[in-house]
Amino acid sequence: MARLKVLLTRCLFIAAALAMIQILVSRGTLSPLIVSKPTAVALALWQEIAGGEIPKLFLITMGEVAISFGISLVLGLGVGYFLWRYERWGVAYETLLGAVFGSPIILVYPIFLVIFGRSPAAVIAMGFLSGCIPIILGMRDGLVGVNRTLVRVGQSLNLSRRVIFWKIQLPAAAPTIFSGMRLGFTFTLVSVIGVEFLVEIGGLGKMVSAAYSRFQIDNMYAGITAIILLTMIFIAVSYNLQRRVK
Amino acid sequence: MNEKTSKRLLTLGLVAIGFLILGVSLAQAQTTNTIRATVGQQGLWDTTMAFDTGEKQGFFSKEGVKLDIFYTRGGAETLQPVATGNAEFGWANGTFGVLGAYEKGAKVKIVSAEFTGVDMFWYVKGDSPSKSFRDLAGKKIGFSSAGSSTHLVLLRMAELSGIKIEPVAAGGTPDNYTAVMTGQIAAGWSVPPQRIEDVKKGTLRIVARGSDFPDLQGITFRVNIGNADYLKKNPSVARGFFRAYQKALDYNYDNLKTVIPEFAKLNKIPTEIAEESLKFHPRKGVALAPVAGLEYQVEKAVEFGFLKQKLTQQQLDDLVDLSYLPK
Amino acid sequence: MDAEATRRFQTQRHFLGKIPDTAVIQGVSILAFLVLWEAVSRTGIIFKELVPSVFTVAVRVWNLLASGEFWPHLWISLYEIGLGFAVAAVIGVGLGILLGAHKFWRNVSEPVFLYLAATPKIIFFPICLMLLGLDTGSKMAIGALSGFFPIVICTMTGAREVSPVLLRVARSLRASPLQIYTKVYFPAILRHLFAGFRLGMGVTIIGTFLGEIKLSRGGLGFLAIGFYSQFNLASMYAVIVLIFVLAGVANWIMGILLARFSRYRGTLET
Fold it and tell me: How far is B75 from chain A (nearest CA, A)?
């Protein structure tokens, strides 16, 4: 019952905010050239979905995310494992990677533009760069953080190193590894859409930028809404998966 | 420590809010007769030099106008601020974008032509086998973005040459250069003085320029716009602005020997390159009136999806207002 | 995080008896990267103008700093980042405490903040442009918008963790709501606040620079993209290097502040 009340209150607040915008724009207090009426945005959103434009753009964006995340996973898990296995390297690179991760790495996107041209490849490269570091760190931190007792138990049972790794260490590290993957996915998604917007290529990010360029403000807000909905879905899905892994 | 910290943080918060209010209000403040103009592409002869001269020679201040110029990278960046009232004039807009914005209710007026004819050119790598535009049949050729003037010109050139090409939205001039040099496209576009030095050196070769297609010479591909509300409230300021601008334009063409070196210095290029660039901008190209070929562009705008339907004559008369130009 | 291993290695194996092994690896790695870059530049595998020599970039960095071209843009960026962060901090902490203190409102608002936090804020930039114009205001706004979310989320997390004992004591002493907020919540959540500030500063910096890149007429992002438009990639790299240095310094300062307030928390909790 409490959860329902929370949900209703949340919806009520959002609805109230949208209603206020609707009224202000209809009255002319807010210029319709700057803020669209929520009803107009909903209409534009519906038209773009029904017309197939948004599904197409969605697939492009998701394609880019999938490829960059896929590469991030393979490389990230691999490098993370290496950094755990060889402790000295791990400690050394933890600081380096942490520093790179905390920096505005997305600002190097013009370099990819020049290498790959204005193509999805540039977007994918940027997505990969942003997403692989959390995965590397998650893999390493997860394995490092495994309780030594568990390992010693396995050793006392005379289990081989490989068995200990696959049956004890990896499962114990799984939540942290998965956390890193989730973070990496989020960063990939954000970077992909961000670069799409900045350079006006690809999928949904491009839609927002192009709509702004063509003065189609309703479509611009529809694109923004679509992106928010998309991230909501992915966050919700990944949270659920995370809970299951635990 | 508790008390001090929370008091400090509270003070910091109040100071921050104070700065915020100050900052935002300063940003919005403008003195009367300050004209904010968004100008697409800095450094080009047609976009920059008249303003430069006008300020240096004091033409604008004589009319009581203070210029606040904001250089953009073209396209919507130039148009949007004028439509939303964040700038009074927008310089060198693609006519398409303006038509589309007007249809959606943007309160803008076309106050003058910016350039009539084609000043852009297409080039290939110096060692490319393509010697003329016709040789590019079936190849990938770059333009800036869908529906831009470069797009329209490219398609029209292909039509007039009777060849089929593969147009690629490769972006701005630097993006096109990279794309050509890395072989992603066969030919890219540029506008002088950019890439002219490379042409002179031989690393690039021009395969198409505006003067090759006399049919295109009579169309105003770029216009200047003004915010309609501002124009209604400040017609005399607008007229004074244009008097100064026209004076600056005339001054430039009457004093090429002194102005061209300035142009060269601005773009950090040698004077001969600057002179070469000027060949693309004949005096009649930068004439502020008339705005020619509007019907043709309206048709194409519908075709490219910039307009939902053709603008009526009444709408066109409403949109184009050349009354602020000196007689 | 990995303090154990770090300490272990930094006290044990030493190269040349003085430098810790890990530092050597870090140094060599960075050097290797530079050598690789220089090699690619000299051989021209990738289009020559795209990968200028390391030395060229270094010279450009020097030129930028010495010529004075860099400094006005730096002040503009710092101004935008500073104000944007301040706004994000004030609103984020304020809302974070207000909403985080009550379980109901926390449950109502936290998911919304989390979802919006994951959305790339740069897509809201056109709205900032339209509302606040072309100058620093819009950049400050996108910076504030970016930084707001980590700050409010961390603050709410902190507010949630305030010991109920402390609250009961305060209430039994008839403390007013304002006193409870400023004298109980505030100090107790400082560690979370600064964790949020650190994250928030990072994303504010990113958001502000992206805004400058997209549309502005001053600031380091503007400078960088300007060089890109002129195809002066060596200078663009130079600006990017300086931006990374700036971000690194900001992150380092925030890290120190965070560490300081984390230690502080220890004494309060008992």
Answer: 7
Residue C265: pLDDT band (50, 70, 90) is very low
Statement: residue B177 has pLDDT above 50: yes
Domain boundaries, chain A: 55-245
For residue range A53-91, list pLDDT tens digits in order.
Answer: 899 999 999 999 999 999 999 999 999 998 888 888 888
Is A34 in Cβ contact with C247 (below 8 Å)?
Answer: no
Lowest mean pLDDT among B16-20, B242-246, C220-224: B16-20
In angstroms, the Cα distances linking C12 to A91, B56, B114, B245, C9 are 13, 69, 72, 74, 5
Distances (CA, A) of A227 to B41, C91, C115: 31, 25, 11
Q: pLDDT at position C170, please?
A: 81
State the Cα–Cα distance between residues C213 and C228, nearest whole angstrom. Answer: 10
Q: What H or E segment, with its residue span, contains residue B167? A: strand B166-169
- Please measure the distance between the N-terminal and C-terminal CA atoms of chain B and give it in whole angstroms: 73
Round to whole Å and give the CA distance between B287 and B282.
9
Cα dihedral A238, A240, A242, A245 in deg (nearest 10) = -130
- Helix or strand holding residue C257 (H, E): helix C233-269
Please name the residue ranges forming H helices in C52-69.
54-67
Q: Name residue, tokens 């020049």.
A: A114
Q: Which residue has the tokens 């021209």?
A: C44
Of A185, A77, A178, the closest CA to residue A127 belongs to A185
Contact of B260 with B275, CB cutoff 8 Å: yes
Comparing CA positions, the residue from C50, A200, A195 lying closest to residue B177 is: C50
C-alpha angle with apex C16: C11 to C20, nearest 5 degrees? 30
Question: In the complex, which subunits touch C with 3 or more CB pairs below 8 angstroms?
Answer: A, B
CB contact under 8 A, B101 and A213: no
Query: What do you get for the CA distance between the two ends of chain A, in Å?
Result: 26
The C-alpha of B256 sits at a distance from chain A's nearest C-alpha, in angstroms, of: 36
Instruction: Answer yes or no: is pLDDT of C14 > 70.
Output: no
The half-sphere exposure of C128 on its side-chain side, counting CA atoms within 13 A, is 28
Burial C221-246 (b: 16+ CB within 10 A, else e): bbbbbbbbbbbbbbbbbbbbebbbeb
Categorize the per-residue pLDDT at B216 as very low, low, confident or very high, splitting at 50, 70 and 90. confident
Side chain identity, residue B228? A
Q: How many CA atoms lie within 13 A of A86 on its CB side?
A: 10
Chosen for mutation from A25, A31, A33 (greatest number of chain B CBs closer than 10 Å) is A33
Mean pLDDT of C200-226: 90
Q: What pLDDT digit, counting tens, does each position of B110-126 carry?
A: 999 999 988 899 999 98
CATH architecture of A55-245: Orthogonal Bundle (1.10)
Whole-model pTM: value is: 0.82
Rounded Cα gap, residues A100 and B31, in angstroms: 45
